[in-house]
Amino acid sequence: MDALNEIHEFLACETPPQWIEHALENQDILLIDHAHCEKKAASTAMTLMFRYVDRTDLLNKMSRLAREELIHFEQVLELLQTRGVEYCHLSSSGYAGGMRKHIRNHEPARLIDTMIVGAFIEARSCERFAKLAPRLDEVLAKFYRSLLKSECRHYQDYLSLAEVYAGEPIEDRIALFREVEGRLIESEDEVFRFHSGIPPKA
């Protein structure tokens, strides 16, 4: 998949093997947090639609993204139910907060940075789906492979909007968030989540 190669080039690093092994050993938590991630992604898209009502291209792309993420949320809930896993609240890892604290607070810089962060979150999701799928049971592997196309498009949508709204090169901002994201992924984390760094040792 060309888009997957592009994502590997976009990210600073691959997911560490420790995270992959921990995810395979803790699939219930992985799926519960995956459901939360889909719900948060839909909420983020809706928030952007309410905040930037004058940007038609954003409204169209975020509307589609929100619908898709909610469908994915429903699909993960169904997987949890069929596996007898109860959907429950989970605390967040420091990943998203660690990224968002570098977002500038004035416009249009705030919007541009928010789009770049969205691109990194979606790119990391796609990279992890691809890494996990070959090592999961047939049902979950098929589901994760089915998500690759939409998650790759979400990454591209966020990045293209950032480029359009900047009206100038954004390589420096991408480089900053790439370094931050890579550091978060390769650092030890306090909890294991779908988007988290190296899981805590038992």
Sheet with the most strands?
none
Content-based structural category: mainly alpha
Low-confidence stretches: none
CATH architecture: Up-down Bundle
Count of individual domains: 1
The level 1 CATH classification is Mainly Alpha
Q: What would you report as the Rg, rounded to the nearest angstrom?
A: 16 Å
CATH fold name: Ferritin
InterPro entries: Ferritin-like, Ferritin-like_SF, tRNA-Hydrxlase_MiaE
GO biological process, one term: tRNA modification
GO molecular function: tRNA 2-(methylsulfanyl)-N(6)-isopentenyladenosine(37) hydroxylase activity
Pfam families: MiaE
Can you put this structure into words, describing what you see?
The protein is globular. Helices cover 72% and strands 0% of the residues. The protein is mainly alpha-helical. The protein has helices at residues 2-10, 17-25, 27-51, 56-82, 95-100, 109-132, 138-166, 171-186. It is built from 8 helices and no strands. It has one domain (17-186): Ferritin, core subunit, four-helix bundle (Ferritin).
